[in-house]
Recover the amino acids of this structure.
């Protein structure tokens, strides 16, 4: 079944933080921040800023670049619209490029320590795609001051805005 909203799986900030601290490699997880002009006040350390307004033309390259990543996590400010929409767009493009089976049927956060099965191009055969629950707003409440997890955090901006 092609990617749609029913296939989206949310991941808690706590679970994401655990993975980022224990397996901080692009082979394991990549975080995609799709905030636009609201990409201010900090970001998840190591995340990639891909504004949602650019996704119509950047998604194919993003899929190619992340073909070997086991888990991809999308978020925006609240992860209510842009983050989920970006995840669906990404999943559909990955399915178009690598087949319907290229997205894991069952997303599980726990890592059993085993390397994911890969095809002849080094693409992960069943990539897992998540949406960060609560987006950066919830992330910064819990991890904004943790410099291991958040970069360029502006506490005053968040206290005034959200």
């Amino acid at each position: 079944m092609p990617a749609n909203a029913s296939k989206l799986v949310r991941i808690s900030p706590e679970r994401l933080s655990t993975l980022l601290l224990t397996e901080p490699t692009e082979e394991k997880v990549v975080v995609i921040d799709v905030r636009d002009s609201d990409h201010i006040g900090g970001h998840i350390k190591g995340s990639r800023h891909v504004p949602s307004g650019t996704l119509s033309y950047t998604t194919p390259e993003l899929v190619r670049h992340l073909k070997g990543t086991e888990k991809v996590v999308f978020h925006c400010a609240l992860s209510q619209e842009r983050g989920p929409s970006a995840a669906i767009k990404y999943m559909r493009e990955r399915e178009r490029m690598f087949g319907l089976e290229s997205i894991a049927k069952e997303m599980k956060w726990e890592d059993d320590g085993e390397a994911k099965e890969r095809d002849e191009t080094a693409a992960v055969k069943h990539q897992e795609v998540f949406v960060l629950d609560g987006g950066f707003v919830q992330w910064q409440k819990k991890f904004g001051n943790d410099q291991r997890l958040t970069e360029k955090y502006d506490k005053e901006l968040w206290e005034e805005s959200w």
Strands lie at 9-11, 29-33, 43-44, 48-49, 71-75, 128-132, 150-151. The two ends are 38 Å apart (CA to CA). The chain has a mean pLDDT of 86.
